[in-house]
Amino acid sequence: MIFSRGTIEGIAAALAADGLILRGGFRFAGDEAAPAGLSGAPARSVLLVGQAGAAPWPHFQRWFERQPQLVANPLDTWSREVIGAVAQEFGARAVSPSDRPYLPFQQWAMRAEGLKPSPLGILMHPTYGLWHAYRGALLFEEEIFLPEPQEAIHLCDTCIDKPCMKSCPVDAYSGQGFAHEACLGHVRGPRGEPCRSGGCLDRNTCPYGTSFRYPPEVQAFHMAAFASL
Fold first, then answer.
1. Could you state, in order of their start, the residue ranges of all structural domains in the chain?
2. What are the C-alpha distances in Å from 11 to residues 16, 137, 138, 186, 211?
3. pTM of structure
4. What is the top-level taxon of the source organism (predicted)?
């Protein structure tokens, strides 16, 4: 395949039909241990696929309602189907953040969009804040020439109060990292209803990207998946 601006626009249009967007990409260096492409040869380029806000949610819901039985990890399954179909159309190998062995999606994302992690570990986006995600990637055995990403303004550096570190009742996030068991116990417990129904309190207090904040039902879905409820 010869890549052109039209090809990338075609990929973007195919993803947009399900509320997904391209999230940048890059070429692997010649001496880099790149993952395999479609034929098994090392990939030479990657395009990341994700979302801004909850745009894919209506598309996912319609798909989920059509399933004849309960699907394990339904959002991952839907994402693989949608991105896999686009990969097939454009001659790429589709990969997912939940594939084993894990691929370095966060490092790829920082490289593709010039982002840095927030204190919560989620990458901070200058427009979307914490309300975005990466759903997969397209690996190509051709070189795709993309402009080098500009390093994004890291909004966490401008935030003095850091409300995202002060709202959790069990201080799940701190300078020592994420207290997974404390968070999980709280969410599953009697005092965890606000988190179960409306999402992570720390994440929701972030002042950036609030117009992209996931609706409560979307946050409840993700929290139920996290807590295996």
1. 5-152, 159-227
2. 9, 12, 10, 42, 26
3. 0.94
4. Bacteria
